[in-house]
Specification:
mainly alpha
Length: about 70
């Protein structure tokens, strides 16, 4: 079964801290990094879309209903 993938790139100055923090959480709290990142992105998108204009928000909501 093929799964969708998302690659995230970030500046080198941020890479070490971000990666170390995520790896620490994975090792010490047995965190599923894929699930964590998906949830974090979804939460940020939801907040972002909530702050958009009503027209944009309605269009996006209609799109999401179409996908469901």
């Amino acid at each position: 079964m093929k799964r969708n993938q998302l690659t995230i790139t970030y500046p080198a100055r941020d890479a070490e801290d971000l990666q170390q923090t995520l790896q620490h959480l994975k090792a010490n709290q047995y965190l599923n990094l894929s699930a964590f990142c998906r949830a974090a992105i979804a939460e940020k998108l939801k907040r972002h879309l909530k702050n958009q204009s009503p027209t944009y928000h309605n269009q996006n909501q209609q799109q999401q209903e179409t996908f469901q």
